[in-house]
């Protein structure tokens, strides 16, 4: 069997490290071609020494220089690139088979698109890239023949519950609805009046999953589920009305597909991202992921409830953006990124995340996405508007 050569973009993050854990279990199948990281240079260096990639990608020229010197002094042959051009180079490199897109936020857009345009097998964690550029992204997949596999646990579950020929259209294969499960995050039962006082530490303390800080806050606000709703519409060619969000606090069912004959298929497992990552890496085969077998007796029960949009206004805002189409999703995503960063820096309160996004979406009508520039321009305008809101809230 020939070894799959893999570029892991965002290797120092939560998804990146889980991916490298799986890869290291199967050296006969997978070989690390490139690793990238932004701020944790010492971690990136340690990963390079362990996985011996051909390339590493650092944030900028000066960190690349430092990393290169330190690696060379230790006898490493890894060549260090930097910046967005470095990321795009290792994403589209002729020697690469598979790209794991695990950078967080809009920062991953160009490199994820570069992998798609080069026709790679692309394991998508960076949902923000697809949410922002939707139609352009899927057109690029169609044109290049890239194999796009979701590693977001819900979308990976849906993919596993759909028949192999689902791209004919959901109605053609008898799908009535997609049921997207959500844990409800740490504030599912917090009294509403206390939400204005919750801290970044509380928001990042997810009950079931251990994740990066941005997605942890998104899970607490349920914007993560909103972004995932948009992600599901693009991945599976679904209308927003065909995707229903179900709160399932145990995070054991990762999502379900409801068929017209009354059958509902679900994918279950322990909440550990190594399961969807292994599934996508080996697809259509199955490999050991290191995840323990699910103990249903220990789980005991599975609960379900409808989401409360008063508690989680971000979910409503995302659904509205999905229905509007065009640049609305890019604006939603950009406003959310700015607001979440401001919340993490204690500049705004938790409920202000939703009110800032609402303000930004109301400031400008959505327009058609014709090219990447329209997406990037909408992203910039939304960021500027959201930053004004953050600054005003600081003056208040
Ligand atoms: P994280 O914060 O742990 O890691 C992010 C990675 O991206 C790091 O390697 C960081 O160095 C890199 N990065 C950040 N900003 C960058 C920039 N401006 N330029 C280049 N690189 C940059 O995040 P994570 O939890 O691993 O999430 C990564 C992506 O996967 C997100 O899009 C998230 O929504 C998605 N995702 C994560 C999980 C999870 O369990 N963590 C589950 C599903 C989907
Ligand atoms: Mg998810």
From TrEMBL:
The gene is dxr. GO terms for biological process: isopentenyl diphosphate biosynthetic process, methylerythritol 4-phosphate pathway involved in terpenoid biosynthetic process. It comes from Pseudomonas segetis. This is 1-deoxy-D-xylulose 5-phosphate reductoisomerase. Residues 6-134 form the 1-deoxy-D-xylulose 5-phosphate reductoisomerase N-terminal domain. Keywords: Isomerase, Isoprene biosynthesis, Magnesium, Manganese, Metal-binding, NADP, Oxidoreductase. The lineage of its organism: Bacteria, Pseudomonadati, Pseudomonadota, Gammaproteobacteria, Pseudomonadales. Residues 268-384 form the DXP reductoisomerase C-terminal domain. NADPH binds at residues 12-15, 126, 128, 212. The keyword Cytoplasm does not apply.
